[in-house]
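W.,

You were right to be curious about this one. When I first looked at the sequence I had no strong expectations either way, so I just let the prediction run and decided to look at it fresh. Below is the sequence, 149 residues in total, followed by the output.
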Amino acid sequence: MKLLGLPLLLVLLAVTPPGCQGIIIPRCQLVRILRQHGLEGFVGERVADWVCLAKHESSYNTGAINRNKDGSSDYGIFQINSKYWCYNGRTPGASHGCRIHCSKLLDNNITDDIKCAKLIAQRARGLTPWVAWRNHCRGKDLRPYVKGC
């Protein structure tokens, strides 16, 4: 980064509203948080599955947003979709199953993200709604995701 670009970056970070920046949660911290929220064994999945899912959906970034071709968007560390689970005011045909505004899934507190992800997993009886989990985690040795934590 050029030296001239650093002050601009600092100014942009300073004017961004608190809670909207998102953070990268370190892997072992995420493991602890997920265990505290009862995800070990929830719908038959291990915490390692949830950590793998978060790694491949958002790279552990609580502020991640992905825009989809159908006009919906995916939000937060678990990339929760606006068509089915959260309200963003723009997605056509949305059902808002978690009854939460999508912006709440972008802050540094992932308690509401976990609550919504648990609802999704409970309704699906597993993690199959997440493409990244199906493609990168299902049926694989996921011990490295929790090793040392």
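Here's what jumped out at me. The chain has five helices and three strands. And, maybe more interesting for your project: Helices lie at 5-15, 27-36, 47-58, 111-124, 131-136.

Coffee later to discuss?

I.
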